[in-house]
């Protein structure tokens, strides 16, 4: 009979152990699927109190700012109570577990020198026995998991320690992931707020600057008409500077419209050939001033597209501006257009300074400059390519760059074309 009784008890113990392991497996799935910290902590606490059959359970996490362990969750404590309770690393059981990174079983907490009485006094609670295990991530303790007072007056055992250690290994990783996600969410919210403030600033600044700038341009143009000699040269400088500032304001407004989704397309069917010719004509004097040659290769018959003429003019203008700016005197710029796989392709090729391979993916980022900001040789805010990318993508197209340092760059964008094509012949020209 004694043998049978012992066998039944052993079987019952094994069944409890199997049930606990099954519960741990189910809990593991829950922990791995929960990325919100507070619900995760409460789940861990409920599971620990159930599996260890204890009165209470708590989670303390290390606060790097204060150097203390702070309660983050407990079964019988409200959140507002937890926020005002901390446990020192020295002279506390939780501190010993955290510092030594080892589990601890204490059956008589009141007579242990390491027991910190402060928590019991604040909560009007009596801790009789306690199990604590470290929460570890890659061998580093981030906090402590505690179970307190076995229910029914029974003693805590090392089997409870094993259960808690097994769960703590999974819980620590889940807690760390949830904390990282929380930090990422807060960082994203802060970034979103900064982005909103930046957009508001651009809108206000553009509005406030345009009125006085219009007056400056008007008076300078009026005075330029009657000025002679040195005064005429000085007014030319004023006009050039004012026009450059007006262009920068326009860039900022266009970028804001793209980022906020306010940019709208005014579609019309027109000749891409004509658009390219008009843009080149605008930059021809700047290219000639640097003794640059400009080549042109257009399809025949003319390629018709349905797009926003003004926005594509801005795209091509930004690409030509960059080509002229970054191509040295005596260099060559070439603009090519063609139809390829049902799309209109436009390429602006130059023999300029080129772009390092590692920078190619970043050249379309707003405010990005290939040159260091403190040693720049070329003017500009780094908005032109970002605006060009936004305008092309607004049309459902794409833009990219091919480049080699010292040999030049080729910026290419492609757009859908309309089915109608102009009649007649037009030879390609350079």
Structural class of the helix and strand makeup? alpha+beta
How do the strands of the widest beta sheet line up side by side? Answer: 3-2-1-6-5-4
Order of helices and strands: HHEEHEHEHEEHHEHEEHEEHEE
| Count of extended strands | 13
Uncertain runs with pLDDT below 50, 5 residues or more? 372-376, 419-430
Mean pLDDT comes to 79
Query: Radius of gyration in whole Å, from Cα?
Result: 36 Å
Q: What is the helix content?
A: 40-55%
Oligomer: single chain
Largest sheet: 6 strands, antiparallel
User: How much of the residues is beta strand, in percent?
Assistant: 15-25%
Distance between the termini: 108 Å
Shape: elongated
Number of helices: 10
Give a quick set of tags describing it.
single chain, 430 residues, alpha+beta, six-stranded antiparallel sheet, five-stranded mixed sheet, 10 helices, 13 strands, 20% strand, elongated, disordered C terminus
How would you describe this structure to a colleague?
This protein has helices spanning 2-33, 37-52, 79-82, 93-100, 118-123, 158-226, 229-260, 272-289, 309-326, 384-394; strands spanning 54-63, 68-74, 86-87, 104-106, 130-137, 140-150, 268-271, 293-297, 304-307, 332-340, 343-350, 398-404, 408-416. It has 430 residues and is α+β, with helices and mostly antiparallel strands. Helix 2 packs antiparallel against helix 6 and helix 9 packs antiparallel against helix 10 (384-394). Mean pLDDT is 79; it is low at 372-376 and 419-430. It has ten helices and 13 strands. A six-stranded antiparallel sheet has the order 3-2-1-6-5-4, with helices on both faces. A five-stranded mixed sheet has the order 8-10-11-13-12. A two-stranded antiparallel ribbon has the order 7-9. The chain is elongated, with a radius of gyration of 36 Å.
């Amino acid at each position: 009979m004694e043998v049978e009784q012992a066998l039944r008890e052993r079987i019952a113990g094994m069944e409890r152990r199997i049930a606990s392991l099954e519960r741990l497996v189910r809990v593991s799935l829950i922990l791995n699927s929960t990325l919100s910290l507070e619900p995760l902590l409460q789940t861990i606490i409920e599971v620990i109190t159930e599996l260890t059959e204890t009165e209470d359970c708590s989670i303390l996490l290390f606060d790097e700012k204060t150097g203390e362990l702070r309660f983050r969750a407990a079964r019988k404590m409200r959140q507002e109570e937890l926020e005002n309770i901390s446990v020192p690393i020295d002279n506390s059981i939780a501190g010993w577990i955290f510092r030594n990174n080892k589990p601890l079983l204490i059956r008589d907490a009141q007579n242990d020198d390491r027991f910190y009485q402060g928590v019991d006094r604040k909560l009007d609670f009596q801790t009789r026995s306690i199990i604590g295990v470290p929460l570890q991530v890659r061998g580093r303790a981030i906090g402590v998991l505690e179970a307190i007072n076995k229910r029914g007056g029974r003693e805590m055992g090392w089997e409870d320690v094993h259960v808690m250690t097994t769960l703590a290994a999974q819980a620590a990783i889940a807690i760390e992931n949830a904390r990282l996600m929380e930090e990422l969410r807060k960082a994203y919210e802060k970034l979103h707020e900064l982005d909103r403030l930046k957009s508001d600033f651009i809108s206000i600044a553009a509005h406030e600057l345009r009125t006085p700038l219009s007056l400056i341009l008007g008076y300078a143009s009026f005075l330029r008409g009657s000025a002679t000699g040195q005064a005429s040269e000085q007014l030319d400088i004023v006009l050039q500077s004012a026009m450059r500032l007006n262009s920068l304001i326009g860039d900022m407004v266009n970028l804001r419209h793209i980022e906020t989704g306010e940019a709208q397309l005014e579609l019309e069917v027109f000749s891409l050939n004509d658009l390219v010719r008009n843009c080149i004509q605008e930059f021809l004097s700047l290219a000639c001033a640097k003794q640059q040659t400009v080549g042109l290769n257009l399809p025949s018959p003319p390629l018709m597209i349905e797009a926003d003429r003004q926005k594509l003019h801005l795209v091509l203008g930004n690409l030509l501006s960059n080509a002229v700016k970054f191509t040295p005197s005596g260099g060559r710029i070439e603009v090519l257009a063609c139809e390829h796989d049902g799309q209109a392709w436009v390429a602006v090729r130059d023999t300029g300074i080129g772009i390092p391979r590692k920078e190619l993916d970043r050249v379309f980022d707003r405010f990005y400059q290939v040159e260091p900001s403190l040693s720049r040789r070329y003017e500009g805010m780094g908005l032109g390519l970002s605006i060009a990318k936004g305008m092309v993508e607004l049309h459902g197209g794409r833009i990219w760059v091919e480049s080699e340092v010292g040999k030049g760059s080729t910026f290419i964008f492609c757009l859908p074309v309309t089915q109608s094509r102009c009649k007649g012949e037009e030879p390609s020209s350079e």
